[in-house]
Amino acid sequence: MPTDHSTLIQPLLNRRAALLGTVGLLALPASQLAAAATPPAPDVWPNALQVPGGVARLSLGPAAARPVAHAGEVPLLVLGDVIEWTALVGIPLSASPGRASITVKTTEDSGPRQVGYTVAPKRYTEQRLKVAPGTVDLSPENEARYERERAHQATVMATFSEPLPQAKALRMRVPVPGRRSSSFGLRRVFNGQARNPHSGMDIAASTGTAIVAPLPGRVIDTGDYFFNGNTVWLDHGGGLLSMYCHLSDIGVATGDVLKTGERLGAVGATGRATGPHLHWGVMLNRAMVDPALFLPA
Question: What percent of the chain lies above the pLDDT cut of 70?
């Protein structure tokens, strides 16, 4: 296959310039050399944490064009440049510890190749809550509603769009000020019955507090859902989505494009909620992952 050599030559020139710069540093006095040799802190997001509910950052090496990567049949977000491509892999909370792999294909490959990684175990804490009985033991009508909503949400969660987000622009802004009242991965027991682990971050705030977009995004769904209450979904590109639940009001419509910091709604207690708060979820390749990995410590 023909190769655009201009895309390969320039990085080599950059490497040569960097090498010559290093040689020049050797001529500096020791005090200046120490200062000059200290690289800036990397601004890499999200943070890597290879556990259930975490994110794996997998090096795919150099390639003339962006590789195509999948986890099973699900497309993955691949960012970088011809010198180094990286696959960002959301690890489901249901993932078993141990070896896992993704499939990668580049224009230079004769066929797909496997890139492996290891999922480490992580023990999440447990919380017991009392809620209205009708939100745990569903009536036939509510069960039917829930199943309809779950099927619809599955289509929303399968969104994979372009343009892709920028690799250096994945540091998120906290969408609402407040105390983190419930952590990601918490194993919840409602009225004595175990349920799925908590798949987002809960932030306690007063009803009506503005909720803003943590990254640029397009609104791909809004609605009033049985468990989640008033909900907004944002698409940030490349299978990176975010979800905002229990809102007292929704201030956007499907198709709206938001900048970082623009209002999308307000804190409430709609759906299954014990008080006003924001349930904030982040999804990567259809896996809910810990939003804290996108935030500064």
Answer: 83
